[in-house]
Amino acid sequence: MTTSEVDRDHVQSLERGITLLLAFDAEHPEPTLAELAQLTGFSRPAVRRFLITLERMGYVRSNGSGRWSLTPRVLTIGQHYTESHALIELAQPHLLGLAEQTQESASLSTLDGAEVVYVARVPVRRIMSINVSVGTRVPAHATSMGRVLLAWAPDELVDEVLLRYPPQAITTNTVTDVGALRAALAEVRRQGWSTVSEELETGLLSASAPVRDRSGAVVAALASSTSTGRSTVEQLEREVVPLLVETADRLSADLGGTARAS
What we know:
Shape: elongated
Mean pLDDT: 86
Distance between the termini: 32 Å
Structural class: alpha+beta
Helix content: 40-55%
Strand content: 15-25%
Number of helices: 10
CATH class of the largest domain: Alpha Beta
CATH architecture of the largest domain: 2-Layer Sandwich
């Protein structure tokens, strides 16, 4: 498809409507029309039209004092995603089983650009100070999940993540050197799993293993998380990683995939 064909088929108003919805976040839960215009770069008349349309559809509401907020209806978008992806439904019993065996939180995630997105989770203890739930995004380079997903990703995607979005230090332990990260990905491919200690958050320790579909492609990362106060990297690799890899292999089998493909 040529650039002109892509431009012709591109629906700018839809893109802008979604951009406006994404402007509502933790820092701007109830923005004004003027604030939304500043956040999106759209004109005030355009923002007003989008808000009126989204209000009629039930996705936003006005509180009567010039501020706007999202409505619970936006959650149905994520619900439709969950219901339309067999991976998430199949993963739930495996996540529960892993959490029961380890007495630690179990998560399933996918890769979206330079970020990892949680698509399913069974929390056991509160480990992270940030609120982790389905839909939470974290930097791929600083997580065991991200390294698993990048380890088997196409080279061009890895280059984009590491070069277009230079890794940033989140804690004093975060690996940001591109060469060191590429070496870490090679090690993940070699051993078939990943552990990361205190790179995303001080005190957070996690391990991840790949989940494959029927084609053998890695489509998700299965993770178990704990704290450095309850475990060490050595303990995690000895006691949890075998359970994690076994669980990821069973989930892969449910998807028609094969375990530990190269």
